[in-house]
Amino acid sequence: MKKAIRSRQATLVLMILVLAAAVSILSPNFRTWSNLISILRNNTVLAVCSLGLTVLVITGNVDVSTGAQLAVISVAVGNLALQGWGSTPLLILIAIALGVALNLLNAVLCIYTRLSAIIITMGTTSIFRGTIQLITNGSWVSGIPPKVTGIWKSVAGIPLPLFVFAVLLTATWFMLTRTRFGRSIFAVGGNRVAAKRMGFNQDRVTLGAFAYAGGLMGIAAYLMLALNASAQPSSNNGYEMTIISAVILGGADINGGRASVFSTALGVLLIGVISNGMVLAGINVYFQTLVHGAIIVAAITSDALRRNRESKAPRIDVQEPKTGGGAQS
């Protein structure tokens, strides 16, 4: 698995460098510091969301309600901020709590029905959006106070949320690779039967993974609210496909058991470079949807071809030589 991940990371780095060089030729403005910061700034929310989805995909679950969750949380927290609720830390905690609650609902439904997460979250997408639109009557939330938008201030010329993402990236990597919970996530996604024999409770792992992803979704929603200084109940339609694009492009196995948060980060950066390059080249912004779809198809096809090659590779079974006169254990 490590070899496949490193190979994907090397490929992504090469693709980013080649695309960056090509776009720099077409538009010298691409290689300016301000444009680089703009790419990172505009894709920070996507990066945080993608970290959460990466954790879920490792368990073999794909959440397509992420766009609706972002809308619900940002509208809810935006309204609370306008009503003068508490300080910035309190609003962030509320956003995280809402994200965890929404995703735990997804997890409970998946566990109770034993249906695919894609099917469940397709349903909860409509529930989430319908509920928030009914409560708000579809009205926008605007005029977000500085105590919320201030999180996007810069430190040494770098927006603060970029440091937040770096911390979340490191924490997620540590959780997945250095803790028992992280090992259980890979075990359940790789082989559920073997994971059960190892003593991992599949349902508890699923609940934990959804809760962790929900917390990250809450942080992402808060950052999106602060960045846009507004929120709309019907916003982020189709955004889940961009998140899935980044995760799959990073080499995550859609069937579970394999992914890397660093590869996902590279996938986000590649999407950011492509989107920024198309804008600088004057290409219609709606063409990006087509590109994201093509990326998903290409990445899944590449992964399927890789698995086919691995399954056809000759396997050599090595057996211990039998010794006479003794019972074999």
Protein topology:
Layout: H1 2-26, H2 33-42, H3 44-58, H4 66-82, H5 88-113, H6 117-136, E1 141-142, H7 146-149, E2 154-155, E3 158-159, H8 160-178, H9 180-190, H10 192-197, H11 202-228, E4 230-231, H12 239-249, H13 261-280, H14 287-312
Antiparallel strand pairs: 1-4, 2-3
Helix pairs in contact: 1-13, 3-8, 3-9, 3-11, 3-12, 3-13, 4-5, 4-6, 4-11, 5-6, 5-11, 8-9, 9-11, 12-13, 12-14
Tell me the distance between the termini: 31 Å
Largest sheet strand order: 1-4
- Poorly predicted regions: 315-329
SSE sequence, one letter per element: HHHHHHEHEEHHHHEHHH
Q: Radius of gyration from the CA trace? A: 22 Å
Strand fraction: under 5%
Mean pLDDT: 88
Individual helix count: 14
Largest sheet: 2 strands, antiparallel
Give the overall silhouette: globular
Detailed description of the structure:
Helix content is about 70%, strand content about 0%. The two termini are about 30 Å apart. It is globular. With about 325 residues, the chain is mostly helical. Residues about 315-329 have low confidence and may be disordered.
Name its key features.
single chain, 329 residues, mainly alpha, two-stranded antiparallel ribbon, 72% helix, globular, disordered C terminus
